[in-house]
DNA sequence: CAATGTGAACAAGTTCACAGCG
DNA sequence: CGCTGTGAACTTGTTCACATTG
């Protein structure tokens, strides 16, 4: 369903010996829990890369807030080879994780919703460094059209398809109110944007071949409330 | 470690027959996955309450994006009694969920970080309706101090403890940059705020008795990238 | 000999399928 | 008869413990 995409896997690893990038195994189906942790490992490694050449499962796990057994199992799923008695090569694992996570491609992101949440997202550091590039911003509020966010001019809702096509957007971030979410998703899908991160608190219907991920911040504060009450209860016991 | 909190469990259910609130069982340790779904059920029920008195596990599950077996198991953990052949009483389950999740208490929330993300969060609809009330906003940027967000005046960082104490804040939302997060957490804990929702992309150290929940939006777009690539791959097969 | 890689035990979460009840 | 409640099967994820290796 999705059209063929140009690969750009060597972009980041180009500064490194070719051997490093070659170690990458076929990115088989990884458990979601593992993928979540890989993103954390990557962030830690990004900081570590200037400080040390090698890192033990123990240390990396601690920095990432997990335990060494979990980390080693995660790594083994990537078919990686640490050195026994030594640990993992920081740079090598970094490249491996970037490639595995799909962060060496160029993700041309369309931001739909230029409210506070959209602006927060656009301003977030670290996106550009991992393959994400905002190519356009859309908002239905005429007052916002023409203003700029992060050097990007806000476009009208009617320009969605044209903008997506022009910049060959292959990802969208949705920060619109719940009621607006489904119609926007339909437009995005029609415009060929098949990967969507939504912050709207509603389930979204999409055809096969479209990947949607939802983040629900309101849910998180409610879950905190539950665990807060639990925490108190077990405190006294 | 945390001080005793006044219960206010009857606040929302006060408009209902007392019998409804009485059906509430001891909120035993619920699986995190169940808690996550409960928040979704509640949102659906909030919309359904004006339309129908009763709902089947099948229907509620569909609206919530899950299946009826999961929903019934979740409900059974709450010790709820649906009516066989009929379904669940919408109002009754709504009250049950609110109570279970701890949303009938008054959560006096301190917002630390008045940037875009903080403003987005403060403006989020639905908080007030579920027990959350922002009692103060803090930011370290002097230019923001004195401006207002959602009718609340932004206070200086040095006022954190005084503000927390004055309003008896029992929850905080952290929307500060990563490097600032740990120091702020330490201040919050010292000020007696023992429940924290953090958007900073760093693990936080807190003493026992403090509940922290972390939301990492940068992680979500990276996970989307992974699943996007996966989706393409399995498309062709 | 320090630290990986992994089978096996364990724990958590989901789905099935059906008995039982209103 | 329709729909709940739940044991049991199953799937997914985590932790243990130890053989293995540079």
Q: Could you explain the architecture of this structure?
A:
Two copies of one chain form a homodimer. Chain A has 237 residues and is of the alpha/beta class. Chain A folds into two domains: 91 residues, Winged helix-like DNA-binding domain superfamily/Winged helix DNA-binding domain (Arc Repressor Mutant, subunit A); 113 residues, Rossmann fold. Helices cover 44% and strands 16% of the residues of chain A. Chain A is built from ten helices and nine strands. In chain A, strands 5-6-4-3-7-8-9 form a seven-stranded mixed beta sheet. A two-stranded antiparallel sheet of chain A has the order 1-2. In chain A, strand 3, helix 7 and strand 4 form a beta-alpha-beta unit. In chain A, helix 3 packs across helix 6 and helix 4 packs across helix 5. Chain A is globular. The N terminus of chain A is likely disordered. At the A-B interface, helix 3, helix 7, strand 8 and helix 10 of A face helix 2, helix 6, strand 8 and helix 9 of B. The first copy, chain A, binds a DNA duplex (22 and 22 nucleotides) through helix 3 and helix 5. Chains A, B: This is Redox-sensing transcriptional repressor Rex. Chains A, B: Modulates transcription in response to changes in cellular NADH/NAD(+) redox state. Chains A, B: It is found in: Cytoplasm.
């Amino acid at each position: 369903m999705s059209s063929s995409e140009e690969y750009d896997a060597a972009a980041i690893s180009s500064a490194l010996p070719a051997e490093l990038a070659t170690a990458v195994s076929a990115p088989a189906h990884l458990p979601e829990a593992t993928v979540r942790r890989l993103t954390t490992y990557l962030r830690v490694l990004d900081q570590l890369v200037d400080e040390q050449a090698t890192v033990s499962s123990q240390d990396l796990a601690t920095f990432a807030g997990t335990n060494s057994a979990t980390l080693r199992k995660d790594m083994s799923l990537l078919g990686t080879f640490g050195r026994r008695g030594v640990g993992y090569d920081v740079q090598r694992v970094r490249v491996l994780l970037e490639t595995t996570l799909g962060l060496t491609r160029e993700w041309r992101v369309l931001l739909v919703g230029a409210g506070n949440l959209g602006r927060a997202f656009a301003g977030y550091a670290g996106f550009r460094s991992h393959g994400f590039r905002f190519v356009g911003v859309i908002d239905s509020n005429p007052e916002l059209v023409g203003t700029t966010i992060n050097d990007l001019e806000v476009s009208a809702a009617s320009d969605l398809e044209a903008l997506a096509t022009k910049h060959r957007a292959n990802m969208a971030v949705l920060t619109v109110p719940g009621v607006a979410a489904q119609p926007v998703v339909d437009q995005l899908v029609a415009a060929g944007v098949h990967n969507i991160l939504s912050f709207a608190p509603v389930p979204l219907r999409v055809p096969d071949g479209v990947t949607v991920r939802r983040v629900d911040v309101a849910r998180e504060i409610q879950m905190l409330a539950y665990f807060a009450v639990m925490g108190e209860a077990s405190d006294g016991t």
